[in-house]
Amino acid sequence: MFEQDRFIVRLQQSVMREGDVGICFLGGSYGSRRADEFSDLDAVLVYDGDAARDAAWTRRREFAHSVLPYVPARSFDAAHERAYLHSALYSNGAKVDYRYETRESLAPEPAHAEIRILKDADGWAEQYQAASARVLPAVTRVEAAELERLDNQFWVMFWDVYRQLLRGDAERPFITYLNLLDFTLPPLLEALPPEDASYQGLIDVAYSRDAEATLVHLRRLLDAYLAARSAVIRRHNVGYIPDQGFERGIMQTLNRRGR
Q1: Is the pLDDT reported for residue 216 higher than 80?
Q2: C-alpha dist (Å) from residue 29 to 40, 83, 230
């Protein structure tokens, strides 16, 4: 649908011409041969050392645009995910993450147990894939101090949104609501398996100009948060004890409002 196959051919041609690119492979669903027409592409470019990688990084935008030179594209540095990651979207719908690595910086990881090799040097990519297949998946943990910090911020930000919605103002607290989701949901979702019922509750989010309807949603979000917090404490044996006195008081305050 989004012409990914065309992109892969052009990428392979491009890296074969680029002498500084020692190894190139696709990870993700294309690496495991489970991609569909909606899949994005994870391209890993491996250089012999920092100097070569850093020099290539200065030309990252030009390289991304040169792979499909007649297809308009927009791209940016995805530093919020990792260093040396450049994400591009082509107007034909192909979305590509270009990950710039060196042989020393690219440690074996379970996600690369299956890869699609487009360029190799001295069999390094094959050895790297085999090493990745031997690495056990890491378990994402939430430690007590982190959970306490998340919990403190959740309650304060939640109340900021809630009290303004009670006033009937659905516009002003919207930015706080977005920040609340951004701060709260990712660490909990990463620490819980998708099949957990509390995980599913967290992804049921909604917001509208209807303050009354959004208040109903916000109470559901609170319930989902508390369930997810309990699930994380239980699953990861986190030594964090919520402040029951505070929570009884705030819940009584919420219940007095009848919402």
Answers
A1: yes
A2: 8, 22, 32
